[in-house]
Design goal:
The protein is mainly α. The chain has 18 helices and no strands. It comes from Perca flavescens.
């Protein structure tokens, strides 16, 4: 079964090819001049062949460039949508607690919206796929993701229910943290879950932990960057705790959001270890089952919390349904964008949209609540932000830099030789060399 790592590895950056369109055209012109000096008839045939080959290469490069530009434009829109949905759900949840202080009920209500994942996916399948299947056929095909027997009670208890609990814990702890501290600190600290994923992949998946010492300096740079990013995340958590002077509410809130980030990281790593990687339909079915199971099996918990006055409200009319639906809808939109966004853009851009929600929340907090942006808090946010961005780097980023520097050196060498030729044959060659170099540089 062909699978991809969209669900559990959103930070795997796509290495797009480097297009050197102008360089190809320059090489073809040189070849044409050499052939033209030998024989006129062969020059015409060679020029025609070169022209046809050049047109094919140009068509291919333009097509690739168009695809990349389209993905980049979709990526900009995706960054804005991911940032808006994540920051909007966080701010709206903070406002909801002023009227309806029930974090678990809000978690249960928002998670129940996951039932819409598979119907939404099937609607897209009907619109886009040339071979349309019935809902039952598509359901059975996606159930193969859980094994040859499909979706059985054993599979549900061992491969779905634990992830449903981790999902509930992640969102519940995140909402509890919003009741204690401001949204800027919560969103910044939650970005540490990428560093926790990296650390847990070492511990649970044993992903290249012991082999780091055996690598040379160049190949060690990728792992070293991820290690530094994890250290920065931990340092940011400590500094964020110190920013408010270790008060009880601050320490409790930071502990809750760090626990939420840890549950999110554990969810991703265990998903990779137990289920592997999922296709779009398989991920949609999985999330729909999680939402349905939450609605069916955990509906009694909000009722118990209501009658025990833990999450109590006077009447149903006092419940801010608009806020609840707003939070649930924004979280659902965020999960749709994160899980299915790689179909139209690069995964790295989706992750950038998540981290950009931190300054957005900071701007909102600056004008809506009394928050003290002291030096320690700003440094802590910057350190976490930097660690998150370092984890977005591809594993071979050091090799890419070495290759880029090598190409730049090779690019400068022909420029010097062509300049020397120009001094002996006349000003036209010098001007042509400069023109070709400026075009190639751009």
């Amino acid at each position: 079964m062909k699978k991809h790592s969209a669900r559990v590895a959103p930070l795997s950056a796509c290495n797009s090819p480097v297009l050197t369109l102008t360089k190809v055209e320059g090489e073809d012109r040189i070849r044409e001049n050499v052939v033209g000096t030998t024989d006129a008839q062969s020059a015409g045939a060679a020029a025609g062949a070169e022209s046809g080959s050049n047109r094919r290469k140009l068509h291919c490069c333009i097509r690739v460039t168009t695809v990349q530009v389209r993905k980049a434009l979709w990526g900009v829109a995706m960054v804005i949508c991911v940032c808006s949905s994540w920051a909007g759900s966080t701010q709206l949840a903070k406002l909801t607690f002023k009227q309806f202080d029930a974090p678990f009920t809000l978690t249960w209500f928002a998670t129940s919206w996951n039932c819409l994942f598979f119907p939404l996916y099937y609607f897209g399948h009907v619109c886009k796929s040339p071979e349309r299947q019935t809902p039952r056929q598509r359901f059975r095909e996606c159930c193969r993701f859980f094994g040859d027997d499909g979706l059985t009670p054993k599979v549900f208890l061992t491969k779905i229910a634990p992830f449903g609990l981790l999902w509930i814990l992640t969102n519940y702890l995140y909402l509890q943290a919003l009741r204690k501290i401001n949204t800027t600190d919560v969103s910044a600290l939650f970005c540490c879950n990428k560093a926790f994923v990296f650390l847990l992949s070492w511990i649970v998946l044993r992903d290249r932990f012991m082999g780091v010492r055996c690598l040379d300096v160049c190949s060690k740079a990728g792992d070293l960057g991820q290690i530094v990013a994890a250290i920065l995340a931990i340092a940011g958590i400590v500094m964020m705790t110190y920013a408010d002077g270790f008060h009880s509410h601050s320490v409790i809130g930071i502990t809750l959001v760090v626990a939420s980030a840890s549950m999110s990281a554990l969810y991703k790593v265990l998903f990779k270890m137990v289920l592997g990687s999922a296709k779009f339909g398989e991920a949609a079915l999985f999330l729909s089952i999680v939402g349905s199971a939450n609605f069916v099996f955990l509906s009694f918990v909000p009722v118990i919390l209501y009658f025990s006055h833990v999450e109590y409200i006077g009447s149903l009319g006092d419940i801010p349904w608009a806020y609840l639906c707003g939070v649930a809808g924004l979280q659902f939109a965020f999960n749709v964008l994160v899980n299915f966004g790689i179909a139209i853009t690069y995964p790295t851009l989706i992750s950038i949209g998540i981290v950009l929600s931190v300054p957005v929340n900071a701007m909102v907090d600056l004008y809506t609540c009394e928050i003290n942006f002291n030096t320690v808090r700003l440094i802590a946010v910057f350190i976490i932000f930097l660690g998150f961005l370092m984890l977005l780097l591809p594993e071979d980023w050091d090799q890419c830099i070495i290759q880029l520097s090598t190409k730049l050196r090779k690019r400068d060498e022909p420029a010097e030789s062509s300049g020397e030729v120009g001094t002996t044959t006349g000003l036209n060659w010098r001007g042509r060399a400069r023109t070709s170099m400026s075009t190639f540089a751009h």
